[in-house]
């Protein structure tokens, strides 16, 4: 999906491994799709927590020399896309502090909906913030917490925040994993020999040969130390609200999240979409890579062959030098190129996993037509996205979401497609295979399971959101 929601963040932690920092590097490598702005690792040798962070991809942020400065058998790491706070090194994670409870490093996947209020209160009381990240609020609350034991202070601090948080914390001698009571973001626990691994997605365990054991439960705090694993359930019960968009788009298809295979769910989304929105066609073409699983399901169900009619250039970096003379649709074309022999004279079903602003999809439809397609039918494997996310996914404002501001026919006209159709909400919930109550689907319904800031503009300003035009310029 090029016309995209931005990825959020990924976390990885390991306890009890002689090469903890190296393993964390590999784990972050597998989670790179969840955030490409910065990467960081904190490691402890039992005496001191050390940290290294840098902007950019994991492979650029670390080399063997940097990793050698992070000794010890326990480490946590983070890849970031800024969902709250500016994109700069100060906001990179983990964040490390030293306070009355000793050193602690933290990394966070999610977004706190009451971070602004808490931050204002803390500043009034004299706190000095180093970053604009919502995660730093937790550290200030932790530093002020009265509990004598580290886990008491952790519980006291995280009990005050609301929203989505899958957290990893590292002290000199223990690793603590926390998942919010609604379970918005995934967090999985596994083993690598004697070591414990905690990470956002199971694909990170696969890379290092670890075995998935179970999910960290919503509302659970896991304290992993030399004494073993201790589970604390300090939060009052809350309705589950797993982010359904993890299955639609974020997670890697080779991962299991919320107990389900992402590939299986996405293929089922495509199957259901084919049943709900059938259309006469000669070829099913996925928008790579995001639309591939759903397109396979669509093709299987419809009996129409799937062909890779768009080829993705995997080597496009974050920026590229645009030629001075204008090349039509250069931004998209440098990433995707149509295969004329597949498209020419054919009725094409173009399958993608979502439609956000519609600007890139319009260019793709244009490219497919220019390559000779007779008809172009756009099929989206999720319902219309009509509301922004406040729980850690970087969505455009409501006014920028095409489905929030246009009718289906207007969208079709804008895309210059022969038809456009979405999966129904019932179809989506059926494919994730569980009762409606356990998933958050707010971006499709506008009904939020945890109260969100009243003023969207104020919230975005508070979070010092980046100028989205900059991101648009990159995605073309
Ligand atoms: S609003 Fe959408 S993207 Fe955000 S947590 Fe809910 S389902 Fe996920």
Account of the 3D structure:
The chain has 476 residues and is α+β, with helices and mostly antiparallel strands. It is built from 19 helices and 23 strands. Strand 12 and strand 13 form a beta hairpin. Helix 5 packs across helix 6 and helix 9 packs antiparallel against helix 16. The radius of gyration is 22 Å and the shape is elongated. Iron/sulfur cluster binds next to helix 8 and helix 17.
Present as ligands are: iron/sulfur cluster
Count all strands and give the number: 23
Rounded average pLDDT: 89
Biggest sheet overview = 7 strands, antiparallel
* Quaternary: single chain
Q: Which strand order spans the largest sheet, edge to edge or round the barrel?
A: 3-2-4-1-10-9-11
The share of residues in extended strands comes to: 15-25%
Helix content: 25-40%
- Low-pLDDT ranges: 457-476
* Helical/strand content category: alpha+beta
SS element count, helices = 19
Radius of gyration: 22 Å
Q: Distance between termini?
A: 12 Å
Instruction: Report the principal-axis shape.
Output: elongated
């Amino acid at each position: 999906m090029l016309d995209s929601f931005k990825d959020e963040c990924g976390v990885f932690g390991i306890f009890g491994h002689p090469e903890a920092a190296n393993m964390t590097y590999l784990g972050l490598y597998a989670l790179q799709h969840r955030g490409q702005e910065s990467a960081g690792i904190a490691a402890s040798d039992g005496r001191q927590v050390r940290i290294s962070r840098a902007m950019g991809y994991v492979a650029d942020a670390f080399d063997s020399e940097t990793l050698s400065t992070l000794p010890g058998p326990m480490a946590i790491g983070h890849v970031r896309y800024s969902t709250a706070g500016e994109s700069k090194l100060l906001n990179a994670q983990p964040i490390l502090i030293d306070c009355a409870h000793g050193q602690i490093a933290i990394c966070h996947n999610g977004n706190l909906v009451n971070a602004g209020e808490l931050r204002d209160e803390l500043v009034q009381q004299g706190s000095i913030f180093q970053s604009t990240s919502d995660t730093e609020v937790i550290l200030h609350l932790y530093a002020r917490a009265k509990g004598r034991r580290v886990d008491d202070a952790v519980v006291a601090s995280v009990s005050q925040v609301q929203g989505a948080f899958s957290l990893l914390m590292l002290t000199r001698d223990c690793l603590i994993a926390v998942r919010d009571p609604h379970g918005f973001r995934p967090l999985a626990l596994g083993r690598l020999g004697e070591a414990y691994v905690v990470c956002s997605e199971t694909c990170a365990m696969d890379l290092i040969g670890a075995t998935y054991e179970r999910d960290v439960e919503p509302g659970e705090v896991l304290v992993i130390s030399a004494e073993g694993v201790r589970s604390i359930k300090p939060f009052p019960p809350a309705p589950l609200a797993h982010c359904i968009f993890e299955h639609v788009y974020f997670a890697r298809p080779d991962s299991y999240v919320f107990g389900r295979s992402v590939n299986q769910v996405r293929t089922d989304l495509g199957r259901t979409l084919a049943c709900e929105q059938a259309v006469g066609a000669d070829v099913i073409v996925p928008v790579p890579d995001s639309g591939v699983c759903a397109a396979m399901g669509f093709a299987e169900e419809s009996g129409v062959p799937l062909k890779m009619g768009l080829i993705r250039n995997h080597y496009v970096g974050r920026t590229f030098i645009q030629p001075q003379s204008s090349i039509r649709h250069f931004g998209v074309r440098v990433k995707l190129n149509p295969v004329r022999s597949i498209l020419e004279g054919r009725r094409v079903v173009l399958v993608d996993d979502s439609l956000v602003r519609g600007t890139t999809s319009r260019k793709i439809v244009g490219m497919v037509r220019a390559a000779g397609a007779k008809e172009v039918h756009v099929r989206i494997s999720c319902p219309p996205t009509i509301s922004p996310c406040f729980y850690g996914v970087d969505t455009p404002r409501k006014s920028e979401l095409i489905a929030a501001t246009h009718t289906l026919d207007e969208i079709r006209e804008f895309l210059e497609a022969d038809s456009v159709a979405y999966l129904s909400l019932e179809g989506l919930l059926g494919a994730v295979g569980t009762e409606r109550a356990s998933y958050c689907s707010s971006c499709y319904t506008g009904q939020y399971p945890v109260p969100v800031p009243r003023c969207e503009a104020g919230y975005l300003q508070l979070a010092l959101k980046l100028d989205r035009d900059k991101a648009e310029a990159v995605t073309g």
